[in-house]
Design brief:
FAD/NAD(P)-binding domain; 7-stranded mixed beta sheet; 4-stranded parallel beta sheet; Fd--NADP_Rdtase_type_2; 22% helix; binds flavin-adenine dinucleotide; 2 domains; 28% strand; elongated; alpha/beta
Length: 338
């Protein structure tokens, strides 16, 4: 069944700028639905550098990227935003009354009066290993490039591949969920945190997970869905292991993706905007944060926050052409709830 959502502003991208846009829209009593291709909020901050301190957020001499995301989530709580995570917005249609309909990869449709694209560097796409016919097992047929819901793997026999934090962390986590977990890594040392690598080695020694080093998953097999994978060691020896799921975790790379096909004026893979209100070449669609470009653009979080404030004013005017908006300070009026 199609999941259908109706809102005032659909924000594409749950990075810091998309999240703060919920706050600015909320002050104007506009409801927001936020969609992100990743299974968690925070954009680059959660995906690339959650433990790195940031020093140029006004009012915070230093703050860990992950903590900033948590604070933003707290800050927008009063406005009860709704989220669709782990789904990429693929297509949009402008309707006759000037509103929009958006479609995600997983069939969710969102009706909204305005759109704020806060897509950052684009949606993060998984780096896929070069294994013949791998794509035949995508789409819920046994190959997964990210763990959206660990319960998918309950009581399964799974093989994870990779040597970074994701591969290590999910091996540790899924050891308690899956029936059998095998981590395959092409080297002998890990890129991920030493502490996590230690945990995986301990699980291996305790017989609760299997660690196969200096090896790669080279073949996938199965008729209707995935049934087995072949693991080939660097010395050429191979074993074929029956599995229910194979999870290659080789990192994510950002790609502009479908946003580039929506008829918006672009420049160097970024969306051109009018700095008056960060509107794009299509009325009703705004672009804020790293995804946009204009003379003097700085790809900084604080610049994206400013853009979110002006975007919200622009979206308010687009949605309510006859209403006048008067700026009110939150210090005087508090934070209204929706
Ligand atoms: P992002 O954080 O990129 O989030 C965009 C989100 O949109 C992503 O989660 C993506 O999955 C989603 N998305 C895209 N397309 C779609 C689609 N079609 N459907 C669904 N979802 C989609 N900035 C600073 O100000 N200070 C710093 O100290 C700093 N340090 C940095 C350190 C590193 C290592 C890096 C990589 C960046 C740093 N930056 C820093 C830059 C900062 O992270 C970015 O400016 C910021 O993340 C931009 O936020 P955003 O919300 O625009 O986009």
């Amino acid at each position: 069944m199609t999941n259908s959502i109706s809102t005032d502003i659909c924000i594409i991208g749950a990075g810091p700028v998309g999240l703060f846009a919920v706050f600015e829209a909320g002050l104007l009593k506009l409801r927001c639905h936020v969609v992100d291709a990743l299974p968690q909020v925070g954009g680059q901050l959660s995906e690339i550098y959650p433990k790195k301190p940031i020093y140029d957020i006004p009012g915070f001499p230093d703050i860990l990227a992950g903590d900033l995301v948590q604070n933003l989530m707290r800050q927008i709580e009063p406005f009860h935003p709704t989220f669709t995570l782990g789904e990429r917005v693929e297509r949009l249609a402008k309707l006759e009354d000037g509103s929009f309909q958006l479609f995600t990869t997983d069939g969710t449709e969102i009706f909204c009066k305005a759109i704020a694209i806060a897509g950052g560097l684009g949606s993060f796409e998984p780096r896929k290993p070069a294994i013949e016919s791998l794509e035949n097992y995508e789409g819920g047929r046994g190959v997964y490039y990210m763990v959206r819901d660990p319960e998918t793997f309950r009581d399964q026999r799974i093989v994870i591949a990779g040597g970074g934090d994701s591969a290590l962390d999910w091996t540790v986590f899924l050891a308690d969920v899956a029936k059998e977990v095998t981590l395959v890594h092409r080297g002998t040392t890990f890129r991920g945190a030493a502490d996590s690598a230690e945990k995986v080695k301990n699980l291996h020694e305790a017989g609760r997970a299997r660690l196969v080093l200096s090896s790669n998953v080279t073949h996938v097999h199965g008729q209707d869905g995935l049934e087995a994978v072949t693991i080939t060691a660097n010395d050429g020896t191979a074993e074929t292991l029956p599995v229910d799921s194979f999870i290659p975790l080789f990192g994510l790379t950002p790609k502009l993706g479908p946003i580039g096909d929506w008829g918006l004026e672009l420049e160097d893979d970024a969306v051109k905007v009018n700095t008056l209100d960060y509107s794009t070449s299509v009325p009703g669609i705004f672009a804020i944060g790293d995804i946009n470009t204009y003379p003097g653009k700085l790809k900084l979080i604080l610049c994206g926050f400013h853009e979110a404030a002006l975007m919200a004013q622009g979206a308010f005017k687009y949605i309510n052409p006859d209403k006048k908006y008067v700026l009110k300070y939150t210090t005087v009026n508090g934070v209204p709830t929706l």
